[in-house]
Amino acid sequence: MLDKILPTTRRHALGLLTGAAAMPLSVRAAIVEKKRLLQGPMLGAVTSDQARLWIRCGAPFQACCEYADNPRFERSKRSDVVVTAAERDFTAVLLLTGLAPATRYYYRITLDGAPDRYLVDIDPATQSFITQPAAGTPHAFRLAFGSCAKYALDPVQDIWRVIDDHRPDMFAWLGDNIYADSMHPTVFREEYRRQRDVTLLQPLLRRIPQLATWDDHDFSANDGDRHNPIKSQTLAAFNDYWANPSAGLNGTPGVFFRHNYGGVDFFFLDGRYYRDPNSDPDVAGKTMLGRKQLAWLKDELKASRAPFKMLIAGGGWSQARGPGGDAWSAFTSERNALFDFIRDEGIEGVVLMSGDTHVGELNSIPWSERQGYDFYDLVASPLAQAGGTSWLERTPEVRIRQVHFSGPNFGIIDFDLTASDPTLRFNIVNYRGELAWDDFIIRASQLRNGVESWRDAMDPLSRKRQKNRENGNAYYSV
Which range marks the domain in which residue 473 is found? Predict the structure, then answer.
């Protein structure tokens, strides 16, 4: 009867399954248990003496990493063994310890004590990384960052080739790293797997530290907030697929953490897990970060001695999207109170970073007019996503550079802490490797109370258009 009902290919598949079930367990194990990775390896947080390495296996294996400061693996060390499990999608993070500062390390993965069957002949140089210099050592380094990588629209993602050409020391994902847009947790994990399989992304994942926060599309659906009914499951998926140094606090779940790289403090914020609805009235008490995360951020900022303190969120910091928009513009009461706190506590060196807008931007929020200093929002988007024209109707406090809207792009920041007055240099790079503007350069000494810097930082066209606005004329009339 089955022969008459089922197509030939389905009859064949059924026969294979039936035959496999009848095989002895030892034979079935020999067929199925290929010792291999399905995704990864991916480098996560790296310090001067530790590194985190993410992998996803094809079965429940005992995973381990062998590493050494030479490609011959002489005097090698091994990480602790981690057993991968189905409930975590066979993912694992391996911790490499006892590393020396400013040293290149080579690594290779073993599964159940054997080399990965598919990576046995790989060039060792493709699986290596450099540790940070010793703490307190003045350092210059390059950060690349971006947001909005939609595999469904662009499975090739040529932007990664350009990013690799610019040789960043670290890459930061600023949210919408996948587009799940679902209320089914399994979809999030499937989207992570698809993004990790992008061929041009592989070299960066293996060599360059990757850190991440999330935004609406990798948290729930568009404009998602604390009412997301599956937020605990999407948080679990996020933590299973990234190798950040930490996530939230004991008793306060979330993706937020602080990480120091090269002497710069990076504060990756969670703008979704505790977020009130955008449409709620913007009054005291309305929150994006939640009470405990905000208290943590304030304590960490006060404790930081870094010349630059980068506050990283998915949505933009400016008022461009207006009241009720899916950005800090819907939470200006909380944002302004945070900025006043930074001013009142004399916390220097704060710079803002964000994504989400599908254009590259550089905006300023002039807190020098309130006896503080000027906050700059460095915006890079999208990595792989369609552009739009909605930015034409948005009015941030001040545009320092005109909007870059020609398609996929990423941000690049060169930090130089070797000078007595450390500098930050920012630009946007498009998918052809072209710079969007003249470099924006800010010195640590300009990020102190009482210093106005935004007017001198503007390019000529932005300055003309700002004067139009101040004179009551149309912003784009010149």
Answer: 140-477
